[in-house]
Amino acid sequence: MQLMYTLQLNCFDINSTVTYLRQSRQAIFEAWPSQILNRDQYHICSNIINGKQFTITIQIGTNTFTTTTFYTFDASTEIKIQMDCAVAGQCLYANINQFSIAIFSLYFPSDDITISSVAGSLRNRIFDHLQCKTHAQAAISLLSGSEQVMASTTPVSECKVSPAYEIIKIIAYLNSAEISEMAINLSTKFPVALHPQFIKYINDLPFICAARPDQLYCIGMSKALIQTEFINFVAGSRNKINVRYQGQIMQFDQNIKFLFTTIESAQTQDCFSSPVMTFYDKYLRVEADSGPCTKCSLAYFASIFSFDSIYLRFIMNVNEDYTGFKYLNEYQVTDYHLGTKFDKMLTCEMMTDVNACKTQLPLVLENMKDNSTIRLALVFKKNDAVVYKALYTPKISQPQIQTANVSIFDEKVCVKFQPVTDNEFLNVQVILHQLKLELQITTNTNTSVYCHQLDQAEKKQLNTILVDKKQLVATVNFDNVLVTDVPVLLIQQGDQPTFVWIIAAIIIVIAFIVIVFLQQCQK
To answer: What's the pTM?
Structure first.
């Protein structure tokens, strides 16, 4: 019978907060590390559950908010997690507003432990202009004479505000500066019955530069948006609304803004399929199967824009909204043919920014969460300026492969890797240095221990291992991914190797001959 442990323990400060969002019927949990834990509490929070994955549940009366996403617990940093209502159609404001406390529970499946406590405060957010739109995306076209930004959003149905005027203005902001504006006349765009819901229905925001009086600004916006990933691009609407203030009806500007986190080229791209990025300490392996490639060839791209170089761009950020640790780097592609599978091992020395790779990338990988932003982009440039960018969302793998020990037995050598990796490796090759002893190992199981049966020639080399074990390091080849200088931390000797018994037998025979010889001399 399996037991589940529930601990009434709060690893967070007393000012932890649960915020209910009326518009989207979601809950946000925010908490900061506690500074007043006793020794036992500190041990649990900073040792037992630290670094472990968890799911979270919020309970407000009979209303439950949860997420299926796994998060990694970090006892030294704040957390902010947004959750959906566990049951569609429930978690209504009328029910939530009856309660003044919220209970949060963190479940750690690896240890079957639940940490549960009461949040410091429960807040209700009735209306939030930042919650009116989600999934804001922008597709950029830089084709000469047809430059444009095609922005789109997904509405939140609760955002319904009646305008006082028929005109709504769509505005684009770049790094907080207003750069472009577009007016929409509601009476000509929608039937009168839909006017109170105009925010819901206006989701496609086309900035077509050739048709605009601010054409140069529009072209500049298009070029700026496609150059980098961490630019702050915000779009929004502005209109007059009637508000009752001190007994009178007055008109105020209503501003609704939304942040764009996905910006790519408008042209069709299908060069890659199912990309994977695997991080091996100092190495990065990039694999990408060939896509349909209906519009993926040098001839095709040359027909729509001029370029002089091709890059793979790596975009990583620990948070979805591009806050926190960031990493942006590129590898210039010179030996890859479009339309074929891409598979290459990369080092920091091969990146355009070597220092960023060595200093920033480890910070991003160390703080990576399930909601982190990870993108792989195929980028074409002309005079170092981006003219085309195709974005892909790769699968990320970080196998841990530090050698823990090498065990030597009569007939085999076993190499153990720690901690156990989730990856299944085939054709594992281990080369023990100072020996040049190559152990060809093949396994089809998910294991961290690989054993090799020794032949007679290899057994003879084991004597060198035993003598020179302190200097031993290994090169490990996982499915053609070569990782060098893997340390061998410990060598454990199992049964006495066969050659030791042979040497002992030779000594005994020699001793016997000497004894017989001495006896003959005495006669």
So the answer is: 0.56
